[in-house]
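Regression test case RT-17, inverse folding.

Input:
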């Protein structure tokens, strides 16, 4: 029996084909129409429906590059099931290099949305109706805010064992179980029994090669696990990711000039100095000291800080985890993969 076409936005995508569909969002004040574009890859054979979204925060462009690379993968030509790829959810923020919508609302605090609410609420409602309700699983791509950077990581709030399995299959160095924020996409999707992997990597408004490679390979590994693509060329991670169920921030005890001595991926011990803050005259210097051990999963890139600024994000990990070996093995595996030769960011 022939598979039915996939219907979205008044279009029908036949089995074994792919199309980009523009879903109308609004009209700018100068009469420019704004759309949310979805690239649909509808496999010839049945299978799960997976969505991959990026730039819900418009300045988090790392995910846009990951989706671009994903859509060029030859393995999609023979895939089973359906892939919904949305490289830019928040076009307003993307065009303005901003996290927010024009009214300064955060889209990821506006779910499940409202068809007659604010612009953010309307966009959130459309995303839930057109994308999430049609999907079995989602992968939402994020980065740190501008002037911060994150170690590649997957964040989940799993209710089902298979969701944690998918998070580990992804192959990022660490899987962090985190609370769900009110109004987030993850919270709204959970109400529909659609679990989401949230991939965090890199810095806002920046590309970096490790984050891109980890993201593309992670999505392909999930698709392989779901039976959507063939295993050829998609290697399983050589080592299991570390797990963390809690983390903490080290904040600036005073304003001044920050010099960091540890970077993301570093294993810190209790008492380690992560950075120093001094005044412009060099007369006063304050050490930033780790109060407990963990893995450095995020940090600021700004050397000028105010009292209370978040400087270092540390994940608590198990005592028997070996962060250096895990990260080296996974990074080495990505380096050796010929899949990425054409796309390398120099």
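Golden output:
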């Amino acid at each position: 029996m022939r598979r039915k076409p996939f219907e979205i936005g008044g279009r029908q995508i036949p089995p074994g084909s792919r199309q980009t569909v523009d879903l109308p969002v609004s009209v700018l004040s100068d009469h420019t129409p704004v759309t949310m574009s979805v690239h649909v890859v509808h496999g010839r054979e049945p299978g799960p429906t997976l969505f991959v979204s990026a730039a819900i925060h418009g300045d988090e462009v790392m995910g846009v590059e990951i989706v671009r690379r994903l859509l060029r993968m030859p393995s999609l030509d023979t895939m089973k099931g359906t892939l919904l790829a949305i490289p830019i959810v928040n076009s307003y923020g993307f065009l303005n290099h901003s996290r927010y919508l024009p009214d300064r609302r955060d889209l990821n605090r506006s779910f499940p949305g409202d068809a007659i609410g604010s612009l953010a609420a309307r966009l959130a409602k459309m995303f839930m109706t057109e994308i999430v309700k049609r999907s079995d699983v989602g992968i939402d791509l994020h980065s740190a805010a501008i002037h911060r950077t994150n170690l590649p990581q997957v964040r989940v709030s799993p209710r089902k064992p298979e969701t944690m399995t998918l998070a580990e299959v992804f192959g990022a160095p660490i899987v962090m179980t985190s609370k769900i924020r009110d109004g987030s996409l993850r919270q709204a999707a959970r109400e529909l029994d659609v679990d989401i992997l949230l991939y965090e990597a890199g810095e806002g408004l920046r590309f970096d090669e490790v984050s891109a490679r980890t993201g593309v390979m992670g999505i392909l590994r999930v698709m392989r696990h779901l039976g959507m693509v063939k295993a050829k060329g998609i290697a399983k991670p050589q080592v299991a990711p570390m797990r963390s169920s809690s983390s903490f921030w080290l904040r600036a005890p005073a304003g001044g000039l920050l010099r960091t001595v540890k970077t993301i991926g570093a294993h810190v011990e209790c008492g380690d100095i992560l950075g120093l803050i001094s005044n412009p005259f060099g007369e006063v210097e304050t050490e930033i000291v780790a109060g407990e051990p963990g893995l450095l999963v995020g940090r600021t890139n700004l050397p000028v800080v105010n009292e209370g600024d978040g400087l270092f994000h540390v994940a608590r990990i198990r005592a028997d985890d070996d962060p250096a070996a895990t990260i080296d093995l996974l990074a080495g595996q990505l380096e050796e993969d010929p899949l990425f030769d054409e796309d390398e960011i120099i």
